[in-house]
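step=encode ok
step=design start
structure_in=
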């Protein structure tokens, strides 16, 4: 599929945003790139931030409802369009706008047709017209990609799959972590936020963090309540050292510094270190930052605690990143799990006797969570699980019988949900 419509042909109002949405979907679905990572390139040349936001919103809506949009398209075509046919991509874009983003059908099709660009315009027009005239609707909540639904049903059961479907349709709220945990009530009142735990604030989906009172002065940073748990489980760090492995963009680094730890943060990606530094500068928090590889890093001295927030499939953050469930293949999960095991073994070597090791992944795959910790414990007799006490966890989140914390879709649903996570706290003998 050729995907770069000539900018001159996209000059009609709203066309450039639709062309960018097409480039974004091509990047995610055909080239396996992350949606956020592909945005800058796909939206190049869009002068207005509204156009960039619209391109992102269209692509995200398509990704959240991809299987259901395709089922509607397939129900209206005599011959099935190939998965990578441009006509299919353009129909997804036009239908998503009409069925999900309140764009009037005439505007959705008028801005979509030029994208077909020498392809079967008549077919696209006909399929779109027959579906909209027939009053097509999409299932609510949307279906997950079939392979993901099957995998999660086997791992977690049908109720969790149903909860994942419900949360995949809703936009996630904005969660903040506060630099001054003791001022939670004061900040909640100031921002009109709810708080589900000390140091946590929740604001409605769509809230722009940069426009909040307190952002410039660095009073908080964006961090899902689940993502805040790993550092919470290390508690107060006055007078103690912690090695923060895989640290950027620094949500957990900031929590640890704010909790009094002396933090050494290791990150492999130079570009992400820039973001880590910018976050620390804004929040006026200080850590030692090192460019390094968690697979080989060997500190001169062991640490009181080590936090390994390992790179993972990220299937737990599908609410905020609707591309992950279409990109992550089973083979990638196996490879991630192998790397995580190697990183965990290396991280364990940096913990002082009597010290703490926290392992976390934002994944809903047992291979990257439960299985990784079980394999680690089977190989390392010098560590044991230290389950969190109730007071260490927000109301509504409990430790599993094995002593680790598994956050699944459905948890805190009435409050707006939480990202999928696995967290284990281990103590070295
Ligand atoms: C899940 S993110 C970490 C999020 C971070 N801890 C936070 O709370 O903001 C994983 C990070 O690991 C980094 N990474 C990947 N492989 C690595 C390696 N071998 N050594 C160190 N960092 C690595 C990635 O660049 C990415 O920034």
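sequence_out=
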């Amino acid at each position: 599929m050729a995907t770069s419509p000539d900018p001159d042909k996209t000059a009609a109002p709203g066309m450039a945003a639709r062309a960018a949405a097409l480039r974004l979907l091509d990047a995610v679905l055909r080239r396996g790139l992350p949606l956020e990572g592909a945005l800058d390139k796909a939206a190049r040349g869009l002068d207005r931030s509204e156009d960039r936001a619209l391109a992102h919103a269209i692509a995200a809506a398509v990704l959240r409802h991809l299987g259901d949009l395709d089922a509607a398209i397939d129900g209206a075509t005599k011959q099935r369009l190939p998965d990578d046919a441009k006509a299919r991509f353009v129909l997804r874009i036009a239908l998503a706008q009409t069925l999900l983003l309140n764009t009037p059908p005439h505007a959705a099709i008028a801005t979509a047709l030029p994208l077909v660009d020498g392809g079967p315009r008549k077919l696209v027009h006909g399929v779109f017209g027959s579906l909209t005239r027939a009053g097509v609707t999409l299932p609510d909540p949307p279906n997950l990609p079939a392979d993901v639904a099957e995998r999660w049903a086997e791992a977690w059961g049908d109720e969790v799959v149903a909860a994942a479907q419900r949360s995949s349709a809703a936009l996630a709220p904005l969660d903040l972590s506060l630099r001054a945990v003791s001022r939670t009530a004061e900040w909640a009142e100031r921002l009109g936020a709810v708080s589900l735990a000390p140091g946590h604030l929740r604001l409605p989906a769509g809230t722009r963090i940069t426009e909040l009172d307190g952002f410039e002065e660095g009073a908080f940073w964006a961090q899902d309540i689940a993502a805040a748990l790993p550092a919470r489980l290390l508690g107060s760090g006055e007078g103690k050292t912690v090695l923060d492995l895989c640290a950027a963009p620094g949500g957990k680094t900031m929590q640890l510094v704010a909790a009094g730890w002396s933090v050494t943060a290791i990150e492999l990606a130079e570009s992400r270190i820039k973001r880590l530094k910018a976050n620390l500068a804004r929040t006026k928090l200080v850590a030692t930052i090192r460019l390094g590889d968690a697979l080989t890093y060997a500190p001169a001295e062991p640490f009181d605690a080590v936090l390994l927030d390992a790179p993972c499939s990220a299937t737990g953050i599908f609410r905020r990143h609707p591309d992950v469930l279409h990109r992550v293949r089973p083979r990638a999960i196996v490879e991630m799990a192998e790397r995580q095991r190697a990183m965990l073994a290396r991280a364990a070597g940096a913990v002082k006797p009597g010290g703490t090791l926290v392992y976390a992944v934002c994944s809903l795959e047992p291979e990257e969570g439960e299985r990784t910790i079980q394999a680690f414990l089977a190989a390392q007799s010098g560590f044991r699980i230290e389950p969190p006490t109730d007071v260490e966890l927000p109301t509504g989140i409990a430790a599993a019988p094995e002593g680790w914390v598994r956050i699944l879709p459905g948890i805190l649903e009435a409050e707006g949900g939480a990202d999928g996570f696995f967290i284990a706290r281990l103590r070295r003998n």
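step=design ok
step=annotate ok -> Residues 181 and 198 are 6 Å apart (CA to CA).
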